[in-house]
Write a structure and sequence with these properties.
CATH superfamily of the largest domain in chain A: L-amino peptidase D-ALA esterase/amidase
Shape of chain A: globular
Distance between the termini of chain A: 37 Å
Largest interface: A-B, 69 and 68 residues
Number of domains of chain A: 2
Radius of gyration of chain A: 22 Å
Number of helices of chain A: 11
Order of helices and strands of chain A: EEHEHEHHEEEHEEHEHHHEEEHEEH
Oligomer: homodimer
Number of strands of chain A: 15
């Protein structure tokens, strides 16, 4: 993330307010636009969704957003009507301090499910958050730290696009280590840009980019109650709303930025030692390709053999076989890190030591499935499954 | 498994023939009926299915079966045309020794995928297997041992039913620790009875019982290439085919026996410390209830918190929420070992230490979801997820 990618007209802050027990661990984050910004949102499909998700759903898409306030350490999920009041209060406190309307503030929360927010900590947190807002890289990184839960590291990505109306900047942050961590929860992301976008364009661009990025990753496939991706576009960089080629360029760049950001999540999956990159080609439809990729990517037997650098391709082939997609098994080819292991219904002779060594040496292991059904493809990214994941998620929390 | 449950007119054997490296570990099993028996079969839904599954599919249902030969240590899956020949050879060798037709023999295999069967070991194995056939309990248990792979313990169940035509006996054996184990594979089961059943009744009874038993369990949801359940009914106990009440009684008893057998599989799941018993009630349809139960049961986050005796009900509620079934969240009640934790969209006050203690003290943890949508229900059984599972399945095998 380079300073030059920071969009103009935004300020950020992040600090520790006491929701997490470790005082070195930031748990409050603020993003503020100097002027009214177009806002778009994409949310969890879980029926049981958190109070801040309900709040954001009612405020997006929109044209007058000014701020995103995020807390980590508590998801404010399964908290009933009091949870809704607390989320509204978080927005109202920030709004009062900034002199704006409560409805101009979006809220994200991540952390433990089923406990009420400690508002006595969040009220002073807002004052400190607003007081420490700044526009430089350090403030942006503080803000990106403030949304983390069990993540090993901060997740940011940025980009610059040249348009006919001048340079546009995109800076994004995300969190997520398990879809729901041990006590913690959720994938959250905030994308800021100084591009001038209409409300419709912003929502379309975000939806399309999320489909190609965050919707293609998993750690363990457990859809959270709080998943939220927000886009704020304040238009400072362009005098008129972008259209045509300019819009396409910005759209492509948002997509690239979100893919870069999304891949950091399974790479940093709880206890993960490999990113697993799964490419399915030659399918009759995109839906078929994605179904096979997701079935392989959610198999614990595949995830454990990748963790063990074991080229146990039978587990991968059999996962493809129970994906619920019809295909001719004779036409299936299976490659691991580029080496062909299974073709025409029979095992290929291969140097197991060599394949294993290549897995051990890669941070990212590539599984390729080639079918003989058509020309459609899909790609997903997931984490391997290690004992560290289980230890992490078995810890008694209550 | 009591000796009195052993059906008449059957003999069994099991021994070590060298497919598994541990010479104390039986890997060959034989079941023989003295006379032609009705045979029924239920198989894996995986597109990529093993050679012995293809062989059995072509021979069931039928009326002239005489034997089931099973090997463990090698699944004979993904082995192309040579695999088919090898499975046929296994049946033919047993048939020649017994003086019957090859088509009267069924074959099951379980073990590593993608390697050819070592026929030089299986040919002498058949001679030894046929030579040591006997009709007592010891021989039955030898046979039940011979089908195991990574199982910690033998899995058997038996029952007796009184019919108007005299006593009928049912004895069944199964294997399965992971749906696909580390090097090993599959759930296999063989059910023997001396009931006199028509081919149609046998197939119906088996299908119905499998739906209520083996189709309700999982370890990690990875459908194997080799899953097979066979029923042999040789009719020795009754002079005429059973009908009416007699048939219903036998059907109910086969179902009870298979449920008893099936629950032993996740209880002995690789590394498992708890059986997880998931009951969903009040659903609009049975399919909805099962979908929710299976989504909860396949969540690693649920499985790890049960392993850790952590009453982290947020993970359970959120898994219900992303199951893809519409329901009113306000009407959901969630109980863990009988204690109410979540109701009306809000957490219930509960003694976390007490719930945790009750989990720690139970071999089987009961998750109950009550919806307010209708009167349908479903029940499934699965394993918790421990570090031992991951260690077991990450071991480099090739």
């Amino acid at each position: 993330m380079k300073e030059e990618c920071l969009p103009q007209g935004f300020s950020w802050s992040g600090h520790h307010c006491g929701l997490k027990s470790d005082s070195n661990s930031p748990d409050y984050s603020l993003i503020v636009s100097d002027r009214d910004a177009v806002v778009a949102g994409v949310y969890t499909q879980n029926l049981i969704c958190a109070a801040p998700v309900n709040l954001c759903r009612s405020r997006t898409p929109g044209t007058q957003a000014r701020a995103i306030v995020t807390n980590s350490g508590n998801a404010n999920a399964c908290t009933g009507s009091r949870g809704i009041q607390d989320a509204q209060q978080m927005a109202a406190d920030v709004a009062a301090l900034l002199g704006i309307e409560a409805e101009q503030v979006l809220v994200m929360s991540t952390g433990i499910i089923g406990e009420f927010l400690p508002m006595e900590k969040l009220i002073p947190a807002s004052a400190e958050g607003v007081g420490s807002l700044a526009s430089g890289l350090e403030a942006f990184l503080d803000s990106a730290n403030g949304i983390l839960t069990t993540d090993q590291g901060r997740k940011t990505a940025g980009s610059i696009v040249e348009t006919s109306q001048g340079i546009v900047r995109i800076a994004a942050m995300a969190k997520g280590a398990g879809m729901i961590g041990p006590n913690m929860a959720t994938m959250l992301a905030a994308v800021t840009t100084d591009a001038n976008l209409s409300q419709e364009s912003a929502q379309q661009i975000l939806k399309r980019a999320v489909d190609k990025s965050f919707n293609c990753i998993s750690v363990e496939g457990h859809t959270s109650t709080n998943d939220t991706v927000l886009l704020l576009a304040n238009g400072v960089a362009n005098s008129l709303p972008l259209t045509g080629d300019d819009l396409d360029k910005v759209s492509a760049e948002v997509e690239k930025t979100l893919i870069q950001l999304a891949k950091q999540i399974p790479a940093d999956g709880e206890g993960a030692t490999h990113l697993i990159d799964i490419l399915v080609q030659g399918a009759a439809s995109k839906a078929d390709a994605k179904q096979i990729a997701e079935t392989i990517g959610s198999s614990n037997l595949v995830k454990t053999c990748i963790a063990g650098n074991d080229p146990n391709w039978g587990r991968i082939a059999s996962a493809a076989g129970y994906a619920g997609v019809q295909f001719n098994v004779q036409g299936l080819k299976l490659r691991l890190n580029g080496m062909l292991l299974f073709e025409g219904g029979e095992p290929c002779p291969f140097d197991a030591e060599k394949v294993s060594k290549s897995m051990a040496e890669s941070e990212s292991v590539l599984i390729e499935i080639e079918l003989d059904e058509g020309a459609e493809e899909a790609r997903i990214w997931t984490s391997d499954l290690t004992t560290a994941y289980v230890v992490f998620n078995s810890d008694y929390h209550t």
